[in-house]
Amino acid sequence: MEPVQRQRPRGRPQGSKNKPKPPVFLTVEPPMSPYILQVPSGNDVVASINRFCRERSIGLCLLSGSGSVADVTLRQPPPAPPGSTITFHGKFDLLSVSAAFLPPPVSSSFTVSLAGPQGQIIGGFVSGPLISAGPVYVVAASLNNPSYYRLPAEVKQENSSASAEAEEGKGQSPPVSGGGGESCHIEGSDVVWTPAAGILTKPSL
């Protein structure tokens, strides 16, 4: 008698299951992370944020701010001598904040828009302490691994056209409006000021 060879059944045996595979986790670092910073009353807002960035070795881009500050010193625009500043005394409400705290070689600048007690609107580059007159809240975003690019110089043709446009614009003075007091806006300047450029006092009736 010849032995009968049984064929192996094809397919998977009944009741068999796949071995469980370990889960795969992908960690993706977001390009920006939100931050909400609170500066206590009586502290320099600019110095506090700068110290926060240095201690954590991060760069921050300020998006908005709210709160009150006192005795603001801003950089004066031309035709004032370079380095001239103007100080506004009193309490002001923060309307907007624009700044970027980045590691060297990028220099940081702090720009604010403020509302005075009598409705005056001032703003410009901060050139001194910005002392909080109450809790100041700043919404910022961290810049993770920013890329730096040095842009090429302009072409000579573009320079010649720009100089021609500058010649055409010579002699045009910025708009100035009179009335109850001087109020002027210099295009591209650092400061927009209203009548009381020194100590803001309540007008006598």
TrEMBL record:
It comes from Brassica campestris (Field mustard). The keyword 4Fe-4S does not apply. Residues 29-164 form the PPC domain. Keywords: DNA-binding, Nucleus, Transcription, Transcription regulation. Residues 1-24, 159-189 are annotated as: Disordered. Transcription factor that specifically binds AT-rich DNA sequences related to the nuclear matrix attachment regions (MARs). One of its GO terms (molecular function) is minor groove of adenine-thymine-rich DNA binding. One of its GO terms (cellular component) is nucleus. It is found in: Nucleus. Pfam families: PCC. PROSITE patterns: PPC. SUPFAM superfamilies: AF0104/ALDC/Ptd012-like. This is PPC domain-containing protein.
